[in-house]
Specification:
alpha+beta, D-amino Acid Aminotransferase, Chain A, domain 1, five-stranded antiparallel sheet, three-stranded parallel sheet, 11 helices, 35% helix
Length: 306
């Protein structure tokens, strides 16, 4: 089988306040390539003609899609998947529709609510202000949490573009990793172990290993979760998967609200595959090997195309 591992290259310059590591996929794609030594590995800037040329030259039977930010723009994440679909090339991970949908937190929340999946309410303080069209915790900082209308107005004014304003939930936060061909058959639940007064995953907590926020927001998989609570958390995550039309693998972030409901905070249809973190760690915690996970993704992509 002719496998192509396709990934986007980091831009020459990143916007102020963004970290280059967010766009540099060298480490995760090398980890994928180690499992698939027979595969071709190719990085692209993300121009449509460039992608078409690469496909024409390599003629892959299947693509492991690691294109996260064509031309350095996360908002174009779905475009490579859409082009692969248009060209009838099977690929791993979520399709373009799910990737597009999950780019907009406001639309995602509306779809989840329509499907009966709990999300934080929009009429409560304290609240949190998030950019509606960003991922990777971009634009989220400690001051994103607002206690009153005056603070909310000030924070909203600092964010370019549309925002999502939701009740800031203070319950336990869980990271639910899911994977399956079409249905979310496999899962692992980690809990964010906040420390030193940190209350939320900020941009620094996700992308700056030298920051205090990164140090005080590790994810633990040895956490104590009662069986009934575990099932409720998994049910919310799996229902989100179904409602949003996910496939392959994804991550769902969940917190308890004051009513004791596990609410979906965010859905990431293209989560981090870096070794020792993200999906990589989750599949190991679930008893899978990394080799099995990567090769199974290839199998699912090719079988779904038949």
């Amino acid at each position: 089988m002719n496998v192509l591992i396709l990934h986007t290259l980091p831009p020459d310059f990143v916007a102020e306040g963004r970290a280059r590591v967010e766009f540099d996929l060298n480490v995760p794609v090398r980890a994928i390539a180690e499992v698939l030594p027979e595969a071709m590995l190719h990085g692209i800037r993300g121009e449509p003609a460039e992608l078409i040329d690469v496909l024409a030259r390599h003629q892959p039977d299947v693509v492991f899609n690691a294109c996260e930010a064509p031309l350095g723009r996360p908002d174009l994440e779905a475009h490579c998947a859409a082009l692969l679909e248009w060209l009838h090339v099977p690929f791993t991970g979520c399709g373009s529709e799910a990737l597009t949908l999950c780019r907009r937190k406001d639309v995602t929340n509306a779809v989840l609510l329509q499907a009966g999946v709990p999300v934080p309410r929009t009429d409560r303080f304290p609240c949190i202000v998030k950019p509606a069209g960003e991922d990777g915790s971009a634009g989220i900082h400690a001051h994103s949490v607002c206690a009153d209308e005056a603070t909310l107005a000030r924070v909203r004014a600092l964010v370019d573009g549309p925002v999502v304003v939701q009740e800031f939930l203070t319950g336990r936060e869980f990271v639910v990793s899911l994977w399956g061909r079409r249905d979310p058959d496999c899962s692992a639940i980690g809990e964010v172990a906040f420390g030193n007064g940190l209350q939320l995953i900020t941009y620094a907590a996700k992308w700056d290993p030298s920051s205090d926020e990164f140090a005080h927001s590790p994810v633990r998989y040895d956490t104590d979760i009662a069986p009934a609570a575990r099932e409720a958390i998994l049910a919310s995550a799996r229902n989100a998967w179904v409602a949003l039309g996910l496939r392959g693998y994804a991550r769902v972030d969940i917190r308890y609200d004051a009513r004791g409901l596990p609410c979906v905070l965010d859905v990431n249809p293209n989560p981090d595959l870096t070794p020792a973190g993200g999906m990589h760690r989750a599949v190991l915690e679930a008893g899978w090997s990394w080799n099995r996970f990567i090769r199974t993704q290839i199998e699912w992509a090719t079988s779904s195309a038949r």
